[in-house]
UniProtKB/TrEMBL annotation:
<keyword id="KW-0813">Transport</keyword>
<dbReference type="InterPro" id="IPR009056">
    <property type="entry name" value="Cyt_c-like_dom"/>
</dbReference>
<dbReference type="GO" id="GO:0046872">
    <property type="term" value="F:metal ion binding"/>
</dbReference>
<dbReference type="GO" id="GO:0020037">
    <property type="term" value="F:heme binding"/>
</dbReference>
<keyword id="KW-0479">Metal-binding</keyword>
<dbReference type="InterPro" id="IPR050597">
    <property type="entry name" value="Cytochrome_c_Oxidase_Subunit"/>
</dbReference>
<keyword id="KW-0408">Iron</keyword>
<feature type="signal peptide">
    <location>
        <begin position="1"/>
        <end position="22"/>
    </location>
</feature>
<dbReference type="InterPro" id="IPR036909">
    <property type="entry name" value="Cyt_c-like_dom_sf"/>
</dbReference>
<keyword id="KW-0732">Signal</keyword>
<keyword id="KW-0249">Electron transport</keyword>
<keyword id="KW-0349">Heme</keyword>
<feature type="domain" description="Cytochrome c">
    <location>
        <begin position="20"/>
        <end position="98"/>
    </location>
</feature>
<dbReference type="GO" id="GO:0009055">
    <property type="term" value="F:electron transfer activity"/>
</dbReference>
<protein>
    <submittedName>
        <fullName>Monoheme cytochrome c</fullName>
    </submittedName>
</protein>
Length: 100
């Protein structure tokens, strides 16, 4: 059961440097979608749905991952790549369920 999550997660982490070099917010967003689903509805049993979740809540969780107040092997690394503006944009994207 774990392998199904660990495998896609490790592939994505391996790809992170390439994503960062591209330095585009939508590349980062594509990375989120790969795990959390196009509209925030995850296809993976161990990855939470974040679509339609209140944007304040999403922003708070992303900040907590970034500062280390909330720990997760994947999300802690992911959040470190995000600026405050990226986090705001992503929280809005998943809250609204589409591009603005
Ligand atoms: C490799 C897979 C993966 C990627 C990529 C990923 N996430 Fe996550 N995300 C997870 C997992 C797994 C959790 C659950 C963490 C936990 O249990 O604490 C999570 C949790 C979250 C949460 C907290 C949800 C809640 O209900 O508290 C938010 C918000 C979130 N992710 C946003 C994002 C955003 C935004 C991105 C893109 C910048 C992203 N994630 C990229 C796997 C991923």
């Amino acid at each position: 059961m774990w392998l199904r999550v660990i495998y896609p997660a490790s592939v994505l982490i391996f790809m992170l440097p390439a994503v960062v070099n591209a330095d585009e917010a939508n590349k980062l967003l594509n990375m989120c979608k790969a795990c959390h689903g196009e509209s925030g509805m995850s296809r993976f049993e161990h990855i939470p749905n974040i679509g339609w979740q209140n944007s304040d809540y999403l922003l708070k969780q992303l900040r907590a991952f970034k500062t280390g107040n909330r720990q997760d092997p994947t999300m802690t690394k992911v959040a470190q790549l995000l600026s405050e503006a990226d986090m705001q944009q992503m929280a809005d994207y998943f809250y609204l369920g589409k591009d603005k």
